[in-house]
Amino acid sequence: xxxxxxxxxxxxxxxxxxxxxxxxxxxxxxxxxxxxxxxxxxxxxxxxxxxxxxxxxxxxxxxxxxxxxxxxxxxxxxxxxxxxxxxxxxxxxxxxxxxxxxxxxxxxxxxxxxxxxxxxxxxxxxxxxxxxxxxxxxxxxxxxxxxxxxxxxxxxxxxxxxxxxxxxxxxxxxxxxxxxxxxxxxxxxxxxxxxxxxxxxxxxxxxxxxxxxxxxxxxxxxxxxxxxxxxxxxxxxxxxxxxxxxxxxxxxxxxxxxxxxxxxxxxxxxxxxxxxxxxxxxxxxxxxxxxxxxxxxxxxxxxxxxxxxxxxxxxxxxxxxxxx
Length: 324
Fold this sequence. Notes:
CATH class of the largest domain: Alpha Beta
CATH architecture of the largest domain: 3-Layer(aba) Sandwich
Mean pLDDT: 91
CATH topology of the largest domain: Rossmann fold
Strand content: 5-15%
Number of strands: 9
Strand order of the largest sheet: 2-1-3-5-9
Shape: globular
Helix content: 25-40%
Largest sheet: 5 strands, parallel
Number of helices: 11
Structural class: alpha/beta
Low-confidence stretches: none
Distance between the termini: 59 Å
């Protein structure tokens, strides 16, 4: 039986998804029996030229992690899409934009100014900024063009399946690979390796539908390990996040930050999370709260965009800030 051909790529991300693929442990031997890696720059020395020479649809599946933030990312995403039968958005960055997507709060000019001029550690008296090309005596040097807007993989090319997580947990990765090897895949467009309900459904903590008067950052209190973190004033995104990781963070008494994306049927994860917070604060009952009361309550939440849209800004209804 001919082996499957698997490819992988790392665009705008931290590299955690590359490491996560190795969390399948000794099952990697089973994968090696069924599949050959034909392109995966983070693991083996491949060149883009190697992919360009491949026949279209000759790669059985591509695990693409990372958001699309520059012209190189876009080019390789389109190239791998043409060469792959199945394109998988692997991990939160390719699925929703994740942390790189928070760059949509500004633009290329703002990013360059902050990174190369404003930061205290930067020594750049001539205020030199990156250029896409520069002529040297030896020849022209080039860099990819950084885009103003970070995009998800699905906003760039057609995606067959989505695997959430920052990064996906090992059992989830293996479930996806096993489904591919066995040819037992769900309908195209599905989120695979995770459930459909909210994370709260697999969290063991007790909920009492309590309202809170204040919110805390994780370092400010030691929560009761048996009770719902959100009801103790910690901003836990479990109510707006897809199940599938086993509620790893809440089980460790840390609030969920939302890396598995929205549950089935939720269009905007940040809006769902914000609605839940408003409900638990009693903000929706405006008859009992003055405008000043509401402002005081909401001012307790530091970095609202980074809290409610930490992983999903690029894929949200908002998508990006308007830059005047």
